[in-house]
Each structure stands twice: as structure tokens, then as C-alpha cells.
Amino acid sequence: MLPLPYKRELHCHIIPGVDDGSPEMKYSVDYMNALHECGVERIIFTPHHTEPSFMNTPTIIGPLFQELKYTCANLEIPIECEDYSFEYRLDESFINMMNSGKWGEESCQLRPLKDRYILIENSFQQPLLNLDDVIYKLQDKGWYLIMAHPERYHYYSSRGLKSYEHLVDLGVELQCNILSFSGYYGESTQKTAYRLLDEGLISFLGSDLHNLHHVQLIKKFLQSKDYAEIRPELVSMIQNDKI
Fold this sequence. Notes:
The protein is α/β, with parallel strands linked by helices. It has a single domain, classed as TIM Barrel. It contains 9 helices and 10 strands. A 7-stranded mixed sheet has the order 4-3-6-7-8-9-10, with helices on one face. A 3-stranded parallel sheet has the order 1-2-5, with helices on one face. It is globular and about 45 Å long.
């Protein structure tokens, strides 16, 4: 099995019991071991912040992150629990947090992935109507933006590459899911992922790991001929280890 093309995982749902990912600590430990087997050396965890389903905050996530970090150290799992942030859905709750303050200000309620980077996602039904304005406001407040799994937004892919090129022109960097290349999310998403790769529009990659099924599918894909063919290109393009 070839390793993932990065050593820092930037998109996963492993902190237990807070969203639609790991339900409890024993599963989180299994997922951590699996990512280590896939070549991951450090993780920034990204539980959902989505209104109203997953209203996660540092007050909720912080203690669970510390517990997971302690558990992994106690079990000698050789992965650094580097930090945690959130996968921020662009909804009303997020807009309110965005307006709380600029990056680095004490009043700011957004928690970065690393330095000034934050991971954002659209709804799967439709993009935020004033998305461009929100992007400009976030950038004005000092943030660097990473859009999670844009290949899965069919309202973008149905327009070819136009929407993706527009996001990149605005300064938004794109993060694809590794399983998108395997066809797990459907043929249309798979084709879009390959097109984004071919056009050099991907900056980040993530497992978006939620469950044991994802673990099994990721390992299977890492053993495939298809992955072996695209891995060199991914290694040269993906910035997970550089931020």
C-alpha cells in the first residue's frame, strides 16, 4: 500500500461524539491507527460546525481533543494530535462568528486550522447566495480560505470548471477528498476531481474520514493502480505539509 501524498491530515471527523463521525473514543483510536498506517504523522481535527445540527465550539471540542491526545499518547500511537479547528458550514451561525472580529483579535470566534487558514464548506443543495461578498469580508479580516470538497458540489461541477476557476481567482484554495478519486461519491464527482487535478486547481487533500467504511475504502484505493498513477502529481501539488 502506497502512503497518502501528505503527512498532515487537515480534514477528518475523528473527535468522538460531536458530529456524524466517530461515535466514541474506541473508534477514534481505530481511525488514528488507520491513518498512521496510511502515512499520516500529524492531524488537525475538523469537526463540523453546522447550524443547527452540530453547533460545536472550542468549549465543547477542547476537552475532547485533549482527551483524545492523551489517549493516543498513552497507547503510543505515533501521530501528533497537532490541533483542532472546524469544518465551517457557510450559514447564519458562521456569518455571526465571522463578524465577531478579525483574525488574531481576542474577540474573534473563528478558530484557524493553522495560522490564518480556515476550512469552509457550502451546503450541498446550493451555494451561499452572497458567497463572493462573504469571501471578500473574510479575506479583509485576515483569513486564508480553503473550500472543502468542492468536487462534491454538483451545482458547480454541472458548469464545468467555471465555478472552480472563479473561486481560485478570488483567492480561495480547493481541498479535494481522496475518496473522490476512487469513485466513492459517484462517477460525476470522480470525473470532476480528476479534472481539477489535471488543471492544477487543487491545493489541499483530505481523508474526510467519518467511519470504518471510509477507512477500508481509503486503504483499498491506496493499493490501486489508479492511485499509483496520480500519486506523483498529488505529491507535487498538495500543500497540507507546507502551511
